[in-house]
Structure formats: C-alpha cells, structure tokens
C-alpha cells in the first residue's frame, strides 16, 4: 500500500466537485466548512467545478475531468475533497489518465457516497490508500461527536501508526436542511447497535476478524465489482474486510446487489463483512424488508456479517482507510475497529 503524506497544519487541500456540485442556496454552508478547514490550519484551494449543480453534476464532464487531473497531478496538493457525493462520478473513470497518475505524488482523497467510486478506483488502479469518511459539507467544527470530529486527527498519522474507533451511541434519522440552517449539526437521536447477522458461524459471545479494508456505497460497488476500477484482490493476497452501505436500493434491489457480489466471488477471500445502516426506509406494505433481503443474500455465509454499522448516509460515519489492515471486534453491544496503516 502507498499511504499519502499525513495531513498537518499547512497542508494544502483542493476542493472540487467531480460529482454533484453545490447550488446557490447552500453556498453559505459551503463557505462555513471551507472557513473551518482554514481554521484547522489547512491551506484551501477552491476549484472552478464546485458552486453549481445541473443534471446531477457541477460542470460538464470535460471540465470536471480537467480540474480533477490538474489537482491529482499537482504535487503541492496533499488532499482532494469534494463537497459531497452525487450520482454519476462513474462517468470520469474511463477518461482519467491513469498512466500519468502513476507518476504523481500520492494524496488523500476522502468522502463517501458517490465519492467512493473514485476512492475504490484509485485504490485498485494506483494502490494508494484512500479515506471513506464524512463528507466535507458535514465536517463543520461545531460537529463534535467522536466519529466525525476526529477525521483529520486520523489522517495526521504516519505510515506504521494505528487508531481505534468504537461504535457511535446514536445516529441521525433526518438530514439537516443546510439551506435554512447553514450551521446545523447532526441530530443524533436514534440508538446505535451493531448486530451479527449469521450467529451460526460464531459460538462465543464475541466475534473478531481481521483483514484489509475495501468497500463503499453498495449501489455503485455492486456495478463496478470485477472491473479494473473495483478490483479488491489486485493489491493484496491477505483476507479482505468488505464494508458496504445502501443509499437508495429497494429491498429486492438490495438483495440482487449483494447476491450478485456473492455469486461473482467477491466474498471468497473475505474474513468478514460490515454492512452499514440502511438509508432506505422500508415500506410496511412491501412483501420483503431490507433485513430479510440481507438475510437471504448473506445469512448463510460462513464468515461474520455485522450490520447496522456506522457506515451510512445516516450519520455519523467511521473513518475507514481503504487498504489498511483492520481488526474488528463485536462483543455484546460494544464494537470497535482498529486500523493499522501498514
């Protein structure tokens, strides 16, 4: 694994919306989080593809591609952040000059949702560690919960270091409206409990497994798996820990996505699977629930499957480093994950 340089005071962070941009009613929130980056001590470079959003993107593909490549190849830049995810970052993958990027200095890319499209592609194509975590638009300084507030602390660690995170106590069920309240924080009201899906594979009160972390938004990764842009086995012979979260899939789509990954052998080298909190509310009248879909697809696997994990469109989110060696432990209602940057 290639770990980018740690982020410290003075590090330069470039901001570009290579997927969805930020419309005018949300500019006050964008300005707030950009100012907070500066307050943290970072130098902020704002791109041109950012403050607009038309047809799910900040700018035409060629503009987004040019700016992303410019930032990726600029060795003075230490990290690249998008404001948030979106829908079709996948449209850039076959246009990126991956041979040119092989010569560039590695840098952190971080975020979740559609951002995970690029995170996994960079991990698979370049062997760089990438960071699946809270998106920029949620990373205000007044957000003080333990998972969100420590993102940059984790990214300040050098290769060979480790850090541990525990499960959140509560999560939010409703998104904040940043157009009305630019300084809003998460409303963490719902209890969190990670759960073991397939208890038949573990006879003790606790479960522990380890491996290299890979994953992201299930809606995307179920499509990308097997392509050169999500090839988890390419960079390691070690066991893998998949983490996957559902953004928009109905229960039947959710089943097909997970079942498809299983049938294509995605989990053959996995030591365990982390399934994030489902962001889709079940229709009580529907014949199949999301948990039933999950049980149908993964319930008979012989490896641990833990669900309702803090990887979700329903905040807060763990900071997970793609490519890091991780140890996951679940005992009763307590869970933690330790990541080693090796």
TrEMBL record:
InterPro entries given in the database record: Carboxypeptidase_A_C_sf, Class_I_gatase-like, LdcA_N, Peptidase_S66_N, Peptidase_S66C, S66_fam
Domain of life: Bacteria
Gene Ontology molecular functions: carboxypeptidase activity; serine-type peptidase activity
Pfam families on file: Peptidase_S66, Peptidase_S66C
Leader sequence residues: none
This protein's UniProt keywords: Carboxypeptidase, Hydrolase, Protease, Serine protease
Domain LD-carboxypeptidase C-terminal residue range list: 210-327
A GO BP annotation: proteolysis
Residues of the LD-carboxypeptidase N-terminal domain: 13-132
Family per similarity comment: Belongs to the peptidase S66 family.
Entries under PANTHER family matching the protein: MURAMOYLTETRAPEPTIDE CARBOXYPEPTIDASE, MUREIN TETRAPEPTIDE CARBOXYPEPTIDASE
Annotated protein name in UniProt: LD-carboxypeptidase
Species per Swiss-Prot/TrEMBL record: Pseudoalteromonas luteoviolacea DSM 6061
Lineage of the organism: Bacteria, Pseudomonadati, Pseudomonadota, Gammaproteobacteria, Alteromonadales
